[in-house]
Design a protein that fits this description.
heterodimer; A: D-Maltodextrin-Binding Protein, domain 2; 19 helices; 11% strand; globular; B: MetI-like fold; MetI-like_sf (chain B); ABC transporter permease (chain B); transmembrane helix (chain B); MetI-like (chain B); cell membrane (chain B)
């Protein structure tokens, strides 16, 4: 009897211990840096950064480093919440993380999560970046550098030559650029295109175009979009926002939009099925188009000037989270990837436009052509305007506010709201989002 | 209950209270405490993964808690008062309840009907029974993505079929009721078979002789179903309803993946198919990162589920009461 009891007790204890151990194991984890063995550096990205060949080169010259990239091809909307969770949890983020311009402001508000690159000799690199790109990476007091710039988003207009030919429009890129010096001209061309019933819309959807016009108008006038430089919400008082809204309403009103929600399944299908003829095209978009439209559309796309003048949309930074176990090695790799050489390599692979003035002058960029886009001289088209780009300041809740305003544009596009109601929604919802 | 069944004379202890042996002490310890040890694993796990998060979430909901911020000032019930006056929250509650009703009612009826079919003498009965469970073993994400494509506005198969019968294309994602219906279809496709198997298991526990005597009395098949099967299935139906309530009100993957593209978490430009869990995610994570507000939504969802479950049980008890009366007649 006694032995039986004891055995039973032992069994119970065993079960309980196993359960406890099992629980504990979940919280455990094993990130111990190997003292002398090779180390692994994880790089978290979204979309296409074009670093594969650079990694290979770096690993060849640094045999103790192994580089793993995560998140390639993912949507920024999926990536940014994950990054925030990793930072909040103090665990899970890569040794290098990519941060998009529009979200950088939010991360800058809590700089304690990132290594101050100024403490690691980054100050010497200032000349490697366009001034405004360098300054965007600094916190408000200028004492901490969160991220080193990767690319910028100089703008162009990508278009389908075959659909233009079908509509009786010129197909040569210079001739096409001459068609639309302003957005009103662009709309006129759209109306001509529409009259020919090619079975395709003139443009993909209103929200991308809206954001393009906004960043352009803001860059050329106030220098800020939804927030002024003192971080006051100015959705309803900044003329650039209203101007972009009204231009977009004209586009919608003329029935030029294919109404595909950007980055949705339908949008991707529409690329494949040649359902629209033009799309506002920041430099990084060329890689997206190639990926979505697929190899069969090679040579059917081309790149012309953007209507209006200049503008910058997007571009990213590389930062090193404090939680990284290999900060020194990560900083070194980040410096390599954002060097002029690294930026040229990325541009050649996937098209993101360098933020380094040296790279922008490099023949490798200036003379480069993109075979997918009918050998368009992408280096010339994008790099030319890049150095004179006027950046747009972004406030603390830029992303949330932008979401609300673009959704209001979308409701008008889908016919759920008229333009006046849409504007009221945009202003009210933006205010609500900013207050959250 | 102190009935002395032992006929032997009571044993007089030889010595007064001998020192209990080690074995006896262990034995007493065993009978008194080991039951607690047996149930301990559940309570430990429940404590770690159930109670603790519940309380912590409540604690967070009383603060202005920026996910990345350093300071989390205490704000009392501010998040809750703000939430009560938040039209987007109530909009998401209506969406959730709408989808719940549209999906659960036909789902349980269809499951009941399927179970009844499967309970008959069929050829290859086991294969049929296995087959109804197949949708359930498919990954939710895969189901949602495929259905989202089927319900596409321009390239979707459903609209293509509708076009053939002369119905205009429906923008499934930008029409509130259409979006609810589309999402309910996914839920039903996945869960009807599962519920059918649960009902089937319960049906098999109903004694055959009830049906035999009913047949002898001349009751038709449908009469047997409504007068014997359904009343005797009542406990199982209650179970299925409560499980569906919890699942239905926490619906996330289907509506989230039904919407693709930028800020899909809003569930459409005018939040047509945004459920409460999606609204919670939108606030706690991107783009707002307001963890306190998100936690308040989580607690409201908890309350909502409790209320809806209670209503369901009350309703079913009513129904059941009626059935029992009929039974005893």
């Amino acid at each position: 009897m006694a032995t039986f009891t004891r055995r039973r007790l032992a069994a119970v204890a065993l079960i309980a211990t196993t359960a406890l151990l099992g629980t504990a194991a979940c919280g455990g984890g094993d990130d111990k840096p190997a003292a002398d063995g090779p180390i692994t550096l994880t790089v978290d990205v979204f979309g296409q950064f074009g670093y594969d060949d650079l990694y290979k080169e770096y690993m060849a010259s640094h045999p103790n480093v192994k580089i793993v990239e995560r998140g390639t091809g993912s949507n920024l909307d999926e990536y940014s919440p994950k990054l925030t969770q990793w930072l909040a949890a103090g665990k899970g983020a890569g040794d290098i993380v990519a941060i998009e311009e529009g979200l950088l402001v939010e991360y800058k508000a809590n700089p304690q999560n990132f290594v101050n690159l100024l403490d690691h000799g980054a100050a010497d690199l200032k000349g490697n970046f366009l001034d405004w790109k360098w300054n965007q990476g600094l916190t408000a007091d200028g004492k901490q550098l969160i991220g080193l710039g990767t690319d910028i988003g100089g703008m162009a207009m990508c278009y389908r030559k075959d659909l233009f030919a079908k509509a009786g429009l010129p197909t040569d890129r210079d001739a096409v650029s001459k068609l639309w010096p302003t957005w009103q001209d662009y709309i006129k061309v759209g109306e001509q295109f529409k009259a020919k019933n090619t079975g395709a819309s003139f443009l993909d959807g209103a929200t991308n175009t809206f954001n393009t016009v906004l960043l352009q108008a803001a860059g050329n006038t106030t220098g800020y979009s939804y927030y002024d430089t003192s971080n006051n919400l100015v959705v309803d008082s900044n003329p650039a926002v209203k101007q972009a809204y009204d231009t977009t309403m004209d586009i919608i009103d003329s029935g030029l939009s294919g109404k595909y929600g950007s980055w949705s399944e339908e949008w991707v299908s529409a690329f494949r099925q040649s359902k629209f003829a033009t799309i506002a095209c920041p430099a990084w978009m060329t890689g997206v188009i190639e990926g979505n439209a697929g190899p069969t559309a090679k040579g059917k796309w081309d790149i012309a000037q953007i209507p209006g003048n200049g503008g910058n949309w997007g571009g990213s930074f590389l930062a090193v989270p404090k939680q990284s176990k290999h900060q020194a090695e990560a900083i070194e790799l980040a410096k390599f990837l954002t060097s002029a050489k690294g930026q040229i390599g990325a541009f050649k692979a996937k098209g993101p436009l360098p933020s380094s003035p040296q790279a922008l002058e490099d023949p490798a960029i200036v003379d480069s052509k993109n075979a997918y886009f009918s050998d368009a001289p992408v280096g010339k088209i994008f790099a030319e305007g890049a150095k004179s780009l006027k950046p747009v300041y972004m406030g603390p809740k830029n992303q949330a506010v932008r979401t609300e305003v673009e959704n209001a544009v979308r409701t008008v596009e889908l016919g759920q709201r008229n333009p006046e109601q849409g504007w009221t929604d945009a202003v009210n919802n933006a205010k609500k989002a900013a207050a959250k | 209950m102190a009935v002395q069944l032992d006929a032997r004379p009571p044993v007089v202890p030889a010595h007064r209270t001998p020192r209990p042996t080690r074995a006896a002490r262990l034995s007493r310890f065993d009978t008194r405490y080991s039951p607690y040890l047996y149930i301990a694993p559940f309570f430990l796990l429940f404590g770690v993964f159930g109670i603790y998060p519940l309380i912590y979430t409540f604690w967070v909901s009383l603060h202005d808690w920026d996910l990345l911020g350093v300071d989390h000032p205490f704000v009392g019930f501010d998040n809750y008062t703000q939430l009560m006056a938040d039209p987007d929250f109530w909009h998401s509650v209506v969406n959730t309840l709408g989808i719940f009703v549209i999906s659960t009612v036909p789902q349980l009826l269809a499951a009941l009907w399927l179970a009844n079919l499967l309970n008959r003498q069929l050829r290859a009965r086991t294969s049929w029974r296995m087959a109804v469970l197949i949708p359930n073993v498919t990954s939710t994400a895969a189901v949602a993505i495929v259905f989202a494509v089927l319900f596409g506005r321009e390239f979707g198969m459903i609209n293509w079929l509708l076009d053939h019968v002369g119905v205009d294309a429906i923008d499934w994602k930008a029409n509130r009721v259409a979006a609810w219906v589309a999402i309910s279809t996914m839920v039903d496709w996945r869960w009807t078979g599962y519920n059918a198997l649960i009902f089937l298991a319960a049906m098999q526990a109903i004694p055959r002789d009830l049906y035999e005597s009913a047949s002898i009395d001349g009751a038709s098949r449908s009469r047997q179903f409504w007068s014997i099967t359904v009343p005797l299935l009542k406990p199982t139906i209650v179970f299925a309803v409560i499980i569906s309530t919890i699942g239905g009100l926490q619906l996330f993957t289907e509506p989230r993946l039904f919407n693709s593209g930028t800020n899909a978490i809003r569930g459409g430009p005018m939040r047509e198919s945004q459920t409460v869990t999606m609204y919670m995610f939108e606030n706690a994570f991107a783009p707002h990162y307001n963890f306190g507000y998100g936690s308040a939504i989580a607690w409201m969802l908890f309350v909502l589920i409790a209320v809806v479950a209670a209503i369901n049980v009350l309703l079913l008890r009513r129904l059941g009461g009626g059935a029992r009366k009929e039974e005893s007649r």
